Amino acid sequence: MKNIRLATIYKLLFIGFLGISLVNCEGEDGAAGPDGLDGVNGSDGSNGNDGINGQDGVGFEELTQFGSIDLTLNGNRADTGEAFTDTKKLEFTAIDAISLINFNSFTTNDTGITFNLLRFLNTPDENSQEFTAGIILNVINPGTDTQEFEFTLDLNEYNIVFEDLVLLQLNELFDNQDIETPLSNFSITNFNFNDDTNNLTFSFSFDIDGANNGSENDLSISGEVDVIVLENIPGVDIL
Predict the structure, then answer these.
(1) What pLDDT is attached to residue 239?
(2) Which of 14, 92, 103, 224 could lock 70 by a disulfide, CB 3.0 to 4.6 Å apart?
(3) pLDDT digits (tens, 9 = 90+) for 197-239
(4) Are strands 167-175 and 112-120 parallel, antiparallel or unpaired?
(5) Which 8-state DSSP code applies to residue 92?
(6) CA separation for the pair 103, 111 (Å, rounded)
């Protein structure tokens, strides 16, 4: 009887220990299952609305209504000798009466017509640097076989900024009548002045050697002029 009870007790203890072992043992994670299929792409969204074009600043039309001077400079840098080409469109005029009389006008005399032009690269501002090109063109015997041109180009704080952030500034006066610093290959072509509309158009070009310009190398300058000029009549004083 005693042996039977001990055997029963041993069986119960063994079953208990076995149950505890099974509870405490955890199986290893199984291998990851295969990836699911890619979802279907969504439909394209509708196109956005076009942006609104910017508007010209106040006074823009007034400052640019009299046309422009386009310039192209070809030369070589003094520091590296590298060739460069620089083009600029100067289309802004001063709007006060005195400036317009002085720098956007023409006068006539017995022998011809004289045009005085000045254009800013940016909006004129008395508090900022003046980046300008000025032209005086005297046409002697216009429209005849003896027509001649006396020409002056004045560049004031004309800045050329190269890609490596080196600045070349030109402050130059070029005059085809100047014997001491002569221009070579000087030419004026396509000259036309419409005295009904006061529209003046012409092209010019010339070369200047390195000793007579701030680039310190030979320089070629060309330009296109398309402007509307005001007539300076007698009785209006030019200051």
Answers:
(1) 44
(2) 224
(3) 999 999 999 999 999 998 999 999 999 999 999 988 765 554 4
(4) unpaired
(5) B
(6) 21
Phi, psi of 125 (to 5 degrees): -150, 120
Torsion of CA 57, 161, 94, 129, to 10 degrees: 110
Q: Beta partners for 119?
A: 133
Among the listed ranges 21-30, 81-90, 92-101, which one has the minimum average pLDDT value?
21-30
Which residue, among 60, 67, 63, has the nearest Cα to 199 in the 3D structure? 67
Compute the distance between CA of residue 72 and CA of residue 134 in angstroms, rounded to an integer.
15
Distance CA 159, CA 123 (A): 16
Distance CA 15, CA 235 (A): 130
Q: What is the pTM of this model?
A: 0.70
For residues 78 and 215, the answer to whether their CB atoms sit within 8 Å is yes
